[in-house]
Queue: 4 jobs
Job 1
Amino acid sequence: MKEARSGKSIPEDVVKMIFSNISSIYQFHVLFFLPELQKRMEDWSSNPRIGDVIQKLAPFLKMYGEYVKNFDKAVELITTWWEKSPPFQELIVDIQKREVCANLTLQHHMLEPVQRIPRYELLLKDYVRKLPPESPDRHDAEKALEMIFSAAKHSNAAIAEMERLQNLWEVYRRLGLEDDIVDPSNELIKEGPIQKISFRNNTTSEKYLFLFNNMLLFCVPKVIQVGAEFQVRWRIDVEGMKDVEFPHSFLVSGKQRSLELQASPRGASRLCSTEVTEPCSLLSLAQFKSEELGRRAPQWVRDKLVTMCMRCKEPFNAITRRRHHCRACGYVVCARCSDYRAPLQYDRNRPNRVCLECYVFLTGHLLPEEREGKNKGILEKESAEISGQSLMCSFLQLLDKNGKGGTRGWFVIPQDDPLVLYMYAAPQFPHLCSGDDGTY
């Protein structure tokens, strides 16, 4: 410390960081613990007890926790200053040559306080084991052993906390130290690469997940890794999160986002084969409970699972009727059926594209009649009344006698007359077709 105060080799604050609270630990042993034990040893013939002394002073042994927690950082500081400061290197070499150091390094001597509490515990265990049952010191010694064990546990907890904070800080550094993420109270549970499945085109792309005790971070590796290693795309709160397993994949549904993921690329081809034969389980996930609509992100129904709008039933095509997703329920709908915007709670109440049904539910507003008529197709206007009371309704392609494609129309089988098939080919009155013999 005298050398540090002279300012020639190492700053004084660096010395304090290296040795932490070792001065307080030394004063405790010199002024209290050692004198009490020495006094008891001198009176051992009349009062053969040490358990009460250790009980009285054992709580102060928890001060070792601060020293233990700082030990790794102290060793790192010594290494750093050894490499960059020749005067510091000369000072350490000179100290280690002294007879009192017994040819041992400074780091070796600094390790002694770290091992002190475990040695006290082992010594006291051996002492209690060898005490006769009728010894007047048995009760106090056993109580003192419990207190020493508590001090050792406190030191171990300090080491674990130090390691946790170091690992957490390293993760934050890789994420770019974003203000809304950095929190020393967080606990990293797991991290690793993952394959995200696209709802639109059924392809996979490699992403990276960080799972904390309170949030899931969905990240992408940065192309130019200067500073941060990953970029955070989405943050999903763990509270309210659901996990649904599919064959070869699983769905993470949170309030802010829903993601379908798989652990390895090998499952992608097998996943495609199951989707076509089991689409109902995927479609049902888009149907939220009414109290959840708009409050949590839906799972989008995949584009390739749907050939027509899930609201008006008109078929999709690449030019005039493209696919869109309702941000509230996740259905695949056409532009006309999703030409509405409503604030969604999971997206910080920002307006999002939604379908008509979700718009009415979320806002409570009924559309004007002219808006309703404007958004309906020709066939919808003519067939709406009967389609709403039908057993089945869909577009079908009529074939001529040669098996070639002909007129395409909207077909309806009403509930009250299931033997009659209604065909809407244009805005005129519907044609009636007898369906009992299979002819038209």
Note: The chain has four domains: 2-175, 184-277, 285-376, 381-434.
Job 2
Amino acid sequence: MIYVVDVNLMSFAFVAGSERHASEIAGSPGFVQALDRFFLNRQGFRGSNHRPRAATVQELALFSDMSSEFADATADVLVARVG
């Protein structure tokens, strides 16, 4: 299933097997560090206390398009900005 984390008026999607797994990914140090780097030169990232939610149909379509174009077969997790 595709889950989304909303951060600073942006939405980031990723694949997880369950809501619990999505929460683990969203709270993991690697995920937090990736978002920190993304927001480094922007308005700032205020930690990963954001709960994952199921993607909307539109977010799912955007994620599918991006993942088919940019996915690396060796990547553990693909995180795509969908909003």
Note: The helical segments are 19-26, 29-39, 57-70.
Job 3
Amino acid sequence: MATPESEVEAKCEASDGAGNGGSEAVASIDVGDQTVDATGKPKPKPKTRKQQKKKNKRTKSKSYYLPRFACMRSEPGEDGGFDMEVEVPGERPRPAHLIVTVNGLIGSARDWRFAAKQFVKQYPEKVVVHCSRSNPCRLTFDGVDVMGQRLAEEVKSVVKDQPTVQKISFIGHSLGGLVARYAVAKLYGSGPASEPTKVNGECGSEEPANHHLEDKNTDKICGLEPVNFITSATPHLGSRGHKQVPMFCGFNSLERLAIHSSGFLGRTGRHLFLTDNDDGKPPLLLQMVNDSENIKFISALKSFKRRVAYANAQCDHLVGWSTSSLRQRSNLPKREHLSAIEKKYPHIIKVEGAKTTSSEQEDSSEHKNDRRKTAELEETMLRRLTTLSWERVDVSFSGSKQQIFAHNTIQVKNQCINSDGEDVIQHMIDNFIV
């Protein structure tokens, strides 16, 4: 559901309540029950005490999700997204690190609001968080490629408006992780438009920090240094069979039914269930584990200093542990041997340092249309993606009253019903490379 721009503007200073001072008096006359001014135009009736009370209550409810501590603001952009950063009195260096968050299926920019606020609170002068808004709600049915292209264009626009940023990181939840993977490939080695941009009414070319507009380094994402690529409960290997959607309980009949009805979720459903066959090409998720002449999926991912996969080990009914943690099911840790690693993070049950799996045999299944069995597709995607090093963080909300919402709790989509995931966000922040 789209969020009005008025709901994303957090102001550092309270309003003085004035707004009618200095207004010029206008003559008015009464005509029956209606008041009109001298020109004959109706004048609005004064609000009753009951109406004013209702308005104040509505205003209060709108500001509930806004930051309560001073000097934080979230500024809406032209594309509908918003940038969250800290504003302090006096001049100071602008944040050099841009963090882009990406929502999942039927989500919106609002889903990442809690995490964005915590990142800015932890690194007030170093980061600006942009909660992307190019793929909300129904637009998430358009397909990973279309969504990824939209996100790429949005990021270019944001970078043009943030001339001081030098680094970039992405955080994607669920489908958002796949969309981010596509977008970074489109942005790999490119930068925003090279023409001068105006910042605060001044020519951007006069700003020395605009260096990223001319940067041609191919190991850059949108002309910036790629640092963190983080996914949370993302179906990297798709959602086709093999218990990758736990709500089907591993029943082959239900999984086959889901595959046949994947079109219900539009092109996105066909991408997730690996049933797309556009122009005779392999499934998109399979294409996204290789570099091609036109788009460098693996090179783009490899350019980041670190790649992290947060995964629900249980209670996530939408995305399986294997696909979200980039492991074979036979290599998943035994749940009974896992427990909270630290008091500070009660729901983090295992942290695995960056690992690379070398691929000894080159697989060419992407060129063979007859090799479409789920296990083979899954194995190919897993082998290619794990040629890059990934940190894996396993999460469990077992025993929590919010475990049924684990898929959203790992992100703290709504602080009221997903608050148990706050330690997961804190773990993400504490290990973030700034």
Note: The two ends are 32 Å apart (CA to CA).
Job 4
Amino acid sequence: MILPALSLIQQGIGATPAQAGWIISAMALAGGVATPVVGRLADVRDRRVVFLGVLAIVCAGIALAGLASSVAVFAVGQGLQGVGIGLVPLAVGIVRDTEPPEKLRRTNGLLVGGMAVANAGGVLLAGPILAVLSYPWLYWIALMVLVPLMVLAVLVMPSYPPAVRGRVDWTGAVLLGIGLVALLLGVTFVASTGWTSAPVLGLGAVAVVALAVFVAVERRVVEPLVDLRLGGRTVTIVHVTAFAAGVASTVLMIAVPTIVAAPAATGYGLGSTPVVTGLIMFPLGVLGAIVSPLAGRLERLVGSRTVMVLSGVLFLVAGLVMVAGRSDAVVLAVGAGLVGVGVGLGLTQGVNIIALTLPADRVASVSGVAYVLRAVGQAVGAQVAATVMALELTPGMQLPSWNAITWAFLGASAVGAVVAAASFGLPARLASSR
């Protein structure tokens, strides 16, 4: 629901155009670090306890963001909410344990489709709510839904004890956190200091070192946070697709509200309301919801490789369509729909590949890696899009030029091209480990 409210939130917390990226990326950044931890806990601890603990943290983050009046406090609240991204691999692990193979693809599709339905409903509800209430009410309404659900979970959710107990690699979690924070902070400084400035280069160096040490540690420890040795090339391609889905969808989340809210004097702005933003973004969620449960059926018709190639091609085409959608809400909505279909197909097929080809005791944690990379893609996409759009402003306005927005969209297209090319390395058909 915060996407149509992006410009209102930016004004309410006093965020600059470059800082606006943190409205999205703080949640994605925290999710990137927390998701492998939650996924690992789901493999070695009672999943009911993990579920309830994560949901409690999310509720605290929602309350903090709703009360925030500064960028720093708001970012912390968003970050706490990002821990909830870890609920996805937890759900995938439960599905893998409880569903037979013939129902696994459909159920995973329903999980991804459920998230798409939530996205579609959120952007549609936000506009009418913001027409009569201030943006903090988006958070209070979310709490009104989540708190009763948490009480219900306490009452009805059964225990899911692990088959074996293990440990969580907290060293890996710290290294991953340092690397991601340094990377995103460095991108944030680009708009004000340039790509070759000391803060950008210094933070970039810290990110490279921390992430390199993280990879080295994960390859050595007995029980890694992220097992980089599982799945080989096939799982690597799934992870590339998950990262791309995060980048492509988040560039859209940053650029579209800017285009809608900007005045016509910019040469591209629609000068409209959050309701229009919601209508433009609606196809992303609803089409994603429709195609996600159908990904398994499409895979049986054309093969796993073709589904993933198609996902990348859709991202590529969507970016080009968005460039053509200058001041045209209908064309922008078509681009959003293409992204939704690409995300729905790519993520669902990726989850299916992991669930059907890996051992059951690693499905949650390896699925977590995919959602970590999606979260990292969202964080990187948000910061890069916000930074690129802040590099060239419309004369006399604190708004990005159309040229800057075009480069953001073309970047999303380039990511789609990489996914399509990488997906040719997948096997034509899946062979289940069962």
Note: Residues 6-166+231-423 form a domain with the Growth Hormone; Chain: A; fold (CATH 1.20.1250.20).
